[in-house]
Write a structure and sequence with these properties.
Length: 667
C-alpha cells in the first residue's frame, strides 16, 4: 500500500465523504452555510477548484487567490479537508481568444470552440505552458496549507485533436515508437493501397475517412492520444510535486472510457479514481458498475477512490431518472464493497445555471427538506461505523481480461467481418455470471501477472500481444483454466492477421483452427446441443472450427454448420482451455463460464445466495447487498462476526430486506 494514500486515510479517520465544491459559483454569505451543512452531513473531504481557472487567473499572469484563501481557511476551520484541483480542464476565454491554436480541431476539420466542455488541444504547447503555469502557482501557494489533503489534476481527461499541433506530436510519437519510416511502413502495412510514406512530413492523424482508412494508423492514433493526454497529467503532477511530496496526486477516470488506456495512466498516479453515473432507469446498471469498480481496484491492485457519483438524477441523458429511495446508499456501498475508500459526489450544492443546473447534488435546489438530502446526510453519518474497513485489500482467484489495445482493435479500426462489436458490453456479459454467482474477480491487461489466479476469462480479444499469448500458454500449462470467447487471437499488436490460420495467437492453446468466420444474418439463430444432451440458442456469430487436439463440448444441430463444433475444450499441460465459437444465450454463457470456474476449484464468497444479492470481501469484512426492490434474502455467512451498520452479532445467516446492505466483520 502506498504511503501517500495511507496518510490520507489516517487524516480522514476512515472513508472520505463529500464531493466537488464550487464556491466561486456562489456569493460569500453562502460559504459559511455550506461549511455548517457539510459538518452536519459528515463531510470530511471536498474537491475545490476544478472549473475555477477564470476565477483564479482572470487575465494572463494576474492571479486572484484571495477568495480561495478564504475558502481554504473556512473549510479547515470546519474540520473539512481539501482535495485541491488544478483547473486546467476549463481554460479561460482569454487563452482561447488570444491563442486560438489551443482549441482542438476535430476529426471533421472543424474547430471545437469556446463555451463547450474540454475545449483544449492536449498537444498544444501554448495550452501546456499555461496549464503547468497555473498548476505551479497553486502548488506554490497552497502546498502547505493545513486544509490540503490531496491534489486533483485537471478533470476527466478526454479531448482528441486532429490539428497541426496534434499532427506534429503524432509524428514525434511515431518516431519514438518505430525509429524510422521503414519500420512504420511495415507496421502499418502500407504496401496495401499504395500508402507507403517516404517522408515523415507526409504522416498525419487519421481525419474522418471519406471511404475507409488504414486500420493500423487508426490504432496508433488511439495509443498516441492516450499518451498525449497522459503527458498533460504528468507535467502538471510534476509541477505540483516540486513543492511537496507526501500528498496523493491523481485525476478522475470515467466509466468505460475508450480514449485513455487506464492501465498506463494508473502507474503515474497515487490511486485510481472513478466518476460513474449508472443509469437509474436500467434495472441491471449495477452489473456494469461492479465491473468498473473491479477494474479500478485492479489497475493498481489496491483500494481506489470513488470521485464522482450522483445523489439522484443526472442531466446528460435523454431521460434522466432519479435514484429511487435507497438506491444511492446501495450504490455507494457497492463501490466500497469493491475496494473504494471514498464516497464522493458531483457536486456539493446544485448549480443555479449552466448545462448541469438540473444535475442532482448533495444539497439540492430544494434544500435540506429534500428526500435526497436526507439520504445523503444519513449515509455520511453512517459511514464512520465501518471506518476500520478503509484500506482493506481484496483478493480474487478469477481474472477477466480488459485491455485498451484489444478494445481499440475491435471497435476503432474497422474492416472486420462485422463492425458492430461492443467490447464493454461483451466484457460485461462475461463478468455478469461471475458477479451473480458471488465470485471475486480481478481484471488484467495484456501485461498483467496471471500467476495468482486459477481461472482466466478472455472475452473477444481480437487483437492480442505476443507476450500475452505466451503468458496464457504458461498459465494453462501450469494448471490454470482459460475460457476464451469468439474472434480472439486473430491479429498482432500491429493489427496484422496472424498466419497461417485463425486464431493465430491461440491455435495451440485451443487445439483447433478456424478456416472462416460467419457473422450471422439479421435475426438468424443457431441451435447448439451439448455433450450431455441439453440445448441452447446462439446468434450473431459462428466460426467454422476444426478441432486438432480439442474435444467437442457442443455442436450446431442445423444450418450450414450443422454437426460442426460450437464449443470445444482442450487439455493443455496441467490445465485446460474452453473456447466458445459463437454468441451463446446469456443462460448458456453463464453455465459455460461457471462450469469452468467450479471445475477449477474456485470457491465463491458465499454459497447459495440468490443472484440479486451481491457478495464481496475486503480482508475480514464481508459486504452483502440486496439489489432487489421487492425480495428479502437470507444469506449464509462463512463464520461468526458482527454486522457493523446495525451492531448485531452474526452467527450463521444474515437477512437482507429489499435494497438492504450488511457489512459483517468476520471473527
Amino acid at each position: 500500500m502506498n504511503a501517500r494514500m495511507d496518510g490520507l486515510r489516517r487524516r480522514l479517520g476512515g472513508f472520505a465523504f463529500g464531493g466537488d465544491y464550487n464556491p466561486e459559483q456562489w456569493d460569500r454569505p453562502v460559504w459559511k452555510e455550506d461549511v455548517e451543512l457539510m459538518r452536519r452531513a459528515g463531510v470530511n473531504l471536498v474537491t475545490v477548484g476544478v472549473f475555477a481557472w477564470a476565477s483564479l487567473e482572470p487575465e494572463p499572469g494576474r492571479y486572484t487567490f484571495g477568495w480561495l484563501d478564504e475558502v481554504m481557511d473556512l473549510l479547515h476551520g470546519g474540520g473539512i479537508s481539501v482535495d485541491l484541483a488544478t483547473p486546467t480542464m476549463a481554460p479561460p476565454v482569454w487563452l482561447s481568444h488570444g491563442h486560438p491554436e489551443v482549441l482542438p480541431v476535430m476529426a471533421d476539420g472543424e474547430t471545437f470552440g469556446f463555451g463547450n466542455r474540454l475545449h483544449y488541444d492536449p498537444t498544444s504547447p501554448r495550452y501546456r505552458e499555461h496549464a503547468v503555469g497555473i498548476a505551479g502557482k497553486l502548488a506554490e501557494r497552497y502546498s502547505h496549507h493545513p486544509a490540503l489533503a490531496m491534489w486533483h489534476i485537471s478533470n476527466e481527461y478526454g479531448p482528441t485533436a486532429y490539428g497541426p499541433c496534434a499532427a506534429e506530436a503524432f509524428r514525434t510519437w511515431l518516431r519514438r515508437r518505430y525509429g524510422d519510416l521503414e519500420a512504420l511502413n511495415e507496421a502499418w502495412y502500407t504496401r496495401f493501397w499504395g500508402q507507403r510514406y517516404t517522408d515523415w512530413a507526409q504522416v498525419a492523424p487519421p481525419e474522418v475517412p471519406r471511404t475507409w482508412s488504414n486500420p493500423a494508423r487508426r490504432l496508433d492514433f488511439k495509443r498516441f492520444t492516450s499518451d498525449a493526454l497522459l503527458e498533460c497529467f504528468v507535467a502538471e503532477r510534476d509541477a505540483v510535486r516540486r513543492y511537496r511530496d507526501d500528498l496523493p496526486i491523481l485525476t478522475n477516470f470515467m466509466r468505460f472510457y475508450r480514449h485513455a488506456d487506464y492501465w498506463r495512466w494508473a502507474r503515474e498516479e497515487d490511486a485510481a479514481a472513478l466518476d460513474i453515473y449508472p443509469d437509474p432507469g436500467r434495472a441491471d446498471a449495477h452489473v456494469a458498475a461492479a465491473l468498473n469498480f473491479d477494474l479500478m481496484r485492479s489497475l493498481r491492485g489496491e483500494p481506489w477512490l470513488l470521485m464522482e457519483q450522483a445523489a439522484s438524477g443526472v442531466s446528460q441523458w435523454r431521460v434522466n431518472n432519479v435514484k429511487r429511495p435507497g438506491r444511492m446508499r446501495l450504490g455507494s456501498y457497492q463501490a466500497i464493497a469493491h475496494g473504494a475508500d471514498s464516497v464522493l459526489y458531483f457536486q456539493w450544492r446544485a448549480s443555479r445555471g449552466g448545462h448541469e443546473r438540473f444535475h442532482s447534488a448533495m444539497l439540492p435546489h430544494s434544500g435540506t427538506g429534500a428526500r435526497s438530502w436526507q439520504e445523503v446526510e444519513a449515509l455520511g453519518n453512517e459511514l464512520p461505523r465501518i471506518a476500520a474497513a478503509a484500506g482493506a485489500p481484496s483478493t480474487a482467484e478469477v481474472a477477466l481480461l480488459f485491455d485498451w489495445d484489444a478494445w481499440w482493435g475491435l471497435e476503432d479500426t474497422y474492416g472486420l467481418p462485422r463492425n458492430d462489436f461492443d467490447y464493454a458490453r461483451i466484457a460485461t456479459d462475461h463478468y455478469r455470471p461471475l458477479l451473480e454467482a458471488h465470485y471475486a474477480v480481478d481484471l488484467v491487461s495484456f501485461a498483467g501477472d496471471l500467476s495468482r489466479y486459477r481461472v482466466l476469462v478472455i472475452p473477444n480479444a481480437y487483437l492480442v500481444h505476443d507476450g500475452f499469448a505466451t503468458a496464457v500458454e504458461a498459465f494453462a500449462a501450469a494448471g490454470g483454466t482459460v475460457v476464451i470467447s469468439l474472434f480472439s487471437g486473430v491479429v498482432d499488436r500491429d493489427n496484422q492477421v496472424r498466419q497461417p490460420a485463425y486464431p493465430g495467437a491461440f491455435r495451440r492453446l485451443i487445439g483447433a483452427y478456424i478456416d472462416e468466420y460467419w457473422p450471422a444474418r439479421e435475426e438468424e439463430t443457431f441451435e447448439v446441443e451439448f455433450a450431455d444432451g441439453t440445448t441452447a440458442t446462439a446468434d450473431w456469430w459462428q466460426e467454422s472450427l476444426h478441432p486438432e487436439t480439442a474435444r467437442v463440448l457442443g455442436e450446431y444441430t442445423g444450418g450450414d454448420l450443422a454437426g460442426r463444433p460450437a464449443l470445444i475444450r482442450n487439455d493443455f499441460g496441467s490445465g485446460c482451455v474452453v473456447y466458445i465459437g459463437t454468441r451463446l444465450s446469456p443462460e448458456a454463457l453463464r453455465d459455460t463460464v461457471l462450469s469452468a470456474v467450479r471445475a477449477a476449484g474456485v470457491a465463491p464468497v458465499v454459497e447459495g445466495a440468490p443472484p440479486y444479492v451481491e457478495a464481496t470481501r475486503r480482508d475480514r469484512y464481508l459486504f452483502l447487498l440486496n439489489h432487489s426492490d421487492t425480495r428479502t434474502a437470507s444469506v449464509a455467512v462463512p463464520g461468526p462476526g458482527v454486522e457493523l451498520l446495525g451492531g448485531s452479532t452474526v452467527d450463521g445467516t444474515v437477512t437482507l430486506a429489499p435494497l438492504a446492505v450488511a457489512v459483517v466483520e468476520l471473527s
